[in-house]
Every structure is written in structure tokens, then in C-alpha cells.
Amino acid sequence: MACKTQYTKVKGTKRKVAMRDNDPNQKPSSGCNSGNCSCGDGYDQKLNKKTSRRNMLKSLTAGLLAGTGMVNSACSVTASDDEKDQKQLEWEEFFKGNYRLMTDKEKSETVERLEKLYELNNGKKINVSAQGAEKDVLYGYAFNISKCQGYMDCVNACVQENNQDRSSQMQYIRIHEMENGRINFEDAEDNFFHEVPAEGHFYMGTQCYHCENPPCVDVCPVEATWKEKDGIVVIDYDWCIGCRYCMAACPYDGRRFNWATPEIPEEEVNKNQHYLGNRLRKKGVMEKCTFCIQRSRNGKNPACVEACPTGARIFGNLLDPDSEIRWVLANKKVFRLKEDLGTEPKFWYFMD
Question: What are the Cα distances from residue 88, in Å, to 79, 82, 123, 195, 240?
Fold first, then answer.
């Protein structure tokens, strides 16, 4: 759906807000019809042999890539060394293995390829991390409805931190303005044309809730999304095929789809990236909030938490009894959305 640029008055200023608006059983002709050779048997064995997702996709895409001349251009005598390097790196990256099954060495090689590709394409360096989950960490999030004033600082910070597409005004976070007295997302206003906070209204933020039982993971046909040990639900953009099953399965509207190649001004690219987080994406893949994995796994709060001017957002380790979020869960009346679905979102709401 196309988006339009609108402006929101906030504290007397204007702010941009996005509107969401061949027969497989037929043996190939080999010139041998005697039935005494092994040609046909070999073909049958290949048909009946079970294959992994990795090998299947490799075989399906090999012909396509050869047709585009990727291999030929990498071997061309007229190509420059940089062009050859770039094509070879792109080839290797395309056929890399499933990220979750990679060895540490393979992870390191993948990150190096991504960094070198960016440098070849843009002449500048980026830092891509593959840092894994820390031991004894399970992330959780709490949102204080009493404190949110609808200022949208969290949205802006998220867009910048996570290298989200500017042309479509993609946003992982949405702030809903509701009338006092009830929570009704169908009647909520997500596009503000007035100064906030508005009298008689309150504000609720939604995003990916990093469910303990995420339905998006169950429906992915290629296992491109999964839950990490620290509770963060991630997507491998290289494996995502853009079927959008996960988008349909998510009961919280937490996933976004790239209908076009994301556009980010070079000077605005956040060069501190994580392989499973805010690294630059491509057209036709899903993405979403990752609790700013590039920050949280380095002991920092997500960008939205840090940017919130009213302290409405709280993030921390649920396994740490001394963490602020554990205090909230122990001392406040908290609730989660759509509790009856059994998704167990690690995202709570509360009021003072």
C-alpha cells in the first residue's frame, strides 16, 4: 500500500507521520534406449532423493543466476579486479548456507563479505556483527500507557537506528491515539493532525512483541524466521522468500514487507549493523522490530527506549531479578494483548 507524507503538530512543531495506509516422471532423452545403462537409474535416484532446503534452492537458482551472467561476469577478462571481486562475493553470498546452521568460521566469512560488498559499492566501511545471545538473558519490554504522550520520538529513532526505507516511510512502531475509557484499535487514530497529547485521549504503542510461542515462526515455509535463545524473534533476510505468511499469521501487525528496494540516504545509513537486525535489506523480504539486536546484545537499550522523552518504555532482562522490568512486573498491574491466543508475548502494558 502506498504511503503519503503528513505532518503532526507536536509541542508547537510539525513532525512527519506515515499513513498506512515438463513432466517430472519422464526420463530425459539420452540417446540410450537399451535399458542396459545406468542413465535412467541415476535420474530416478535424483528424483526420489530427499533434498534439504539449502540444496533445493541452490539447484533451482543455479540456472537463473547463470542466465543473468553473474558467473560469466565474475570470470570476464574485461572486468576490473573490483568488479570481479564484487561478483564473486555476490555469488558466494547468494549460495551461503542457512545462517542458523553455520559454523563460527562461516558466520565470520559471511560478515566479511557483506562488509566488503558495501565498501565496493559505496566506498565506505560498515561494521556488521554476528554476535549471538548472551547466557542467562531473556529480553522483555514494558510500556507505560500513563506516560506516553504521542510525541513519536520513538518512531523516528527506530527508523534511523534500523535503516528503514525512507521512500515508503516504513515504521516498525505505531502509536495509536484512543479515547479515554476503552482500548479499541479499530477506532484508534494513527495519524495525528493536531498538537499532542490531545485532551481526552491516551496513547498506546505497538510493534513486534517477540512472542514465546510466535505464530509467525510456525508458518514460515523456509524457516527464515525463528526465536533466538534470548527471546528475540529474528529474520534471515537472505532466506526470506517474501511469501508474507508470517505477516498474515501475526496477530499484532508486527511485520513489514519491502515492496520496493529500500532507499536510505548514504549519510543517514547506520553503519553499526547486525546480520539479523538492521543490516541493509532488499526488495521482497519481510522485516520488523528486533529489540535493536545490534544494541541490546551490547548492553544498550533499544533506540525507542532511549529516545522516549517521558520514560514510557522499559526494557530489560527478565531473568535478572534486579532489573527494572522485573520490578514493573512485580509491582504494577500489567496486561498483554490477546492473552487468550497463547502466544505469550514478552511485551506488557501498565499504568501508574
Answer: 12, 10, 18, 53, 22
3-state secondary structure (DSSP) of residue 92: helix
Report the SS3 class of residue 27. coil
Other Cβ atoms closer than 10 A to 253: 13
Q: Which three cell numbers stand for residue 236?
A: 534471515
Paired strand residues for 234? 226
- Rounded to whole angstroms, the Cα distance separating 312 from 12 reads 21
Residue corresponding to grid cell 520513538: 154
Structure confidence by residue, pLDDT tens digits, 35-91: 444 343 333 333 333 444 444 444 444 444 444 444 444 445 566 777 777 776 665
**Most confident residue range from 109-123, 124-138, 271-285:** 271-285
CATH number of 139-350: 3.30.70.20
Angle at 97 between CA 272 and CA 137, to 5 degrees: 50
pLDDT exceeds cutoff 60 at 152? yes
Cell triple for residue 171? 515504521
**Please, are residues 350 and 331 in contact by the beta-carbon 8 Å criterion?**
no
Decide: residue 43, CB within 10 A, 0-12 exposed, 13-18 middle, 19+ buried. Answer: middle
Name the segment(s) of the chain with CATH classification 3.30.70.20: 139-350
